[in-house]
Amino acid sequence: MSFKIYKVNEALRDVVPQEVIDLEEKATWGDPKRSVMQIPTHKELLEEHSLCAGCPEAAAIRYILASLPNPEDTIIVNSTGCTSLVFPHISLHTVHSLFGNQNSVASGIKRVLEYRFPDKVKDVVVLAGDGATVDIGLDYTLQSFFRQEKITTICFDNEVYANTGGQESGLTPKGHVFKMAPKGKQFEKVPMWQLAIDSGCHYVARLTVSSPKRVEKVIKEAIYVAREVGPTYVHLYTPCILEIGLNSDDGLEEMRARDKERFKFFEYKTPEAEEVLAKYKEEGLL
Ligand SMILES: Cc1ncc(C[n+]2csc(CCOP(=O)(O)OP(=O)(O)O)c2C)c(N)n1
Ligand code: SF4
Ligand SMILES: [Mg+2]
Questions:
Q1: pTM as predicted
Q2: 104-161 pLDDT, tens per residue?
């Protein structure tokens, strides 16, 4: 079922790459019930990427893109890091912001879109690493929560600055040693999910990406609440298999192990968020 975002010019159909024709014929635009369950049979908005083989960040982005309720009217704001290598491959509107600035850029985009298209639903979603969200961008992240910006912030927590070769971040657990942090982390991991609650987010979730269906539910809830109430925050554990010395097929097992302890599923909703989610549930959208 395809919403006509991509319409191939008939005169050129025989020379247009098959993947563009697939976007016309097999993408899931325009279907608010689109789901991760369609990944095997429909056209994905991300199929190839240049991350390490088996990187859980790639799986996370794949699940998130398949879960967006309104991809044709969603703007994704990204920051520098491993995930930024994926964005040129995505069939969506994306903005690459300066490292750490992502929540400020997203706030501006959301406000302008509300002004320019008052009658249209436009979702703005931030996707950034732990270094961008919690270290260098922490001020901007929290200020967007304080201002009650109607955006969803998703943090890919791999507990390290992966893209620059392994420095510790505020989200590295105490004692962890990385190539460029040889003395080991001296203090505890920052509980960013709690900071998000204390800073005014209306929906907060912490989880690994071991279960695509669970990621889908969380992403949809976070986006619906941001649309109608205020800021929402999703904290995903997406281990850097390279920096913790795992093989490319070990990421899932690592996440399943953490599901039982440090990244046990946790969710928080304000009463206003509960009300909005009950409405979406009644409409069959959750
Ligand atoms: C303003 C600015 N400061 C620093 C950098 C260097 N830099 C690029 S990626 C990166 C680390 C990214 O870490 P994280 O946000 O955790 O993402 P990951 O690569 O781990 O997914 C840094 C420090 C930069 N590109 N721009
Ligand atoms: S360095 Fe780590 S986070 Fe970056 S792509 Fe490779 S496995 Fe993924
Ligand atoms: Mg990181």
A1: 0.96
A2: 999 999 999 999 999 999 999 999 999 999 999 999 999 999 999 999 999 999 999 9
**Cβ–Cβ contacts within 10 Å for residue 213, how many?**
12
Q: Kindly state whether residues 227 and 259 are assigned to the same domain.
A: yes
Q: Between helices 56-67 and 212-228, what is the axis angle to 10°?
A: 50
Q: Within this chain, do residues 91 and 6 fall inside the same structural domain, yes or no?
A: no
Find out whether the beta carbon of 222 lies less than 6 Å from any atom of ligand 1: no
- Separation between Cα atoms, residue 144 and residue 157, nearest integer Å: 19
Structural domain including 8 reads: 1-30
**Which residue puts its alpha carbon closest to atom 1 of ligand 2?**
162
**Is 24 in the same domain as 139?**
no
> Secondary structure of the chain: what % helix, strand, coil (to 5)?
40, 15, 45
Distance 161 CA to ligand 2 centre (A): 10
202: three-class secondary structure by DSSP: coil
CA separation for the pair 146, 126 (Å, rounded): 16
Q: How far is the CA of 4 from the centre of ligand 1 (A)?
A: 36
Distance CA 194, CA 187 (A): 17
